[in-house]
Amino acid sequence: MPSSGWSRSPTSSPACALGWLIGLLAEQRAVTYFQPIYTADGRLFAHECLLRGLERDGRTLISPAVLYGAAAAGDLLFHLDRFARLLAIRSGAGLGRLFINFTPTAIYNPAFCLRSTVEAVHAAGIPPADVVFEVVESHRVQDVGHLVRILETYRAAGFAVALDDFGEGYSSLNLLDRVRPDYLKLDMQLVRGVDANPYRATILRRIVAMARDLGIRTLAEGIETEAELAAVRDAGVDFVQGFLLGRPAARPAPGSAAAAA
């Protein structure tokens, strides 16, 4: 099993990042970690797929921030993002519903770029309805039209879509009408300490109510305390996720956090 410590791999220059990341991708030195997602009443609902790189020792983990930083520096975002999606699909086959992250800026032509992803889902025997593609850093989306075309491609293949970090900044609200996601993941900064912050609690309740009116299911992420869990439940969220309920793991144990939920 990989160690819990993070590596600090070299990304100081574009040339260094390029060679280092090309080597990692060529050798497929990465693993998918799975973090459980539960219904508000404690039933296992899905797993979110999270990319972790591996050093050549096969044990030391490389954080996604380092991986994507190197990819941006070396103009390899498309290659890393595609690699992460395909690895998540292969690794997650048989686990049930999967939330798979993707970066919109890494996809330049949806019909072409996503063909291998759709084929991988079918090859893995995963029902398309069990796959949710999650827009990472949705609050930074600049070209909404491009994002809509990507999501139309996913939906045409039978997949659901989610927006992450909802509630960070004002741009998230502007995306709702254009994107019309199936799931909203409420930003962890909105969830953190919500039990002790009446303003934050009111905002969260209003977002959940608005989503319900629009037929969108809500997921509160980043839950670390029992009090936060109770508060988001009281607000009416549909799903919950966080270290209190289950940490990311390479070999998930379904139902292991049901008591905590």
UniProtKB/TrEMBL annotation:
Coiled coil segments of this chain: none
SUPFAM superfamilies, alphabetized: EAL domain-like
Classification via SMART domains: EAL
Domain EAL, first and last residues per copy: 14-261
CDD domains in alphabetical order: EAL (cd01948)
InterPro entries linked to this entry: Cyclic-di-GMP_PDE-like (IPR050706), EAL_dom (IPR001633), EAL_sf (IPR035919)
The protein's name: EAL domain-containing protein
